[in-house]
Design brief:
By secondary structure, this protein is mainly α. Helices cover about 30% and strands about 0% of the residues.
């Protein structure tokens, strides 16, 4: 299969999955749920 046969990846705004970022996603969600989200994450 050539590169021309591969479908284009979705635009980032259309993507809801975080691949390879489970730890970061968990930390962000924990901070959000605690109400103590760092200003740099906003």
């Amino acid at each position: 299969m050539s590169d021309a046969d591969e479908p284009e990846p979705p635009h980032p705004r259309e993507t809801t999955e975080w691949f390879g970022h489970a730890e970061a996603e968990r930390k962000l969600l924990d901070a959000f749920r605690s109400g103590r989200t760092a200003h740099a994450w906003l």
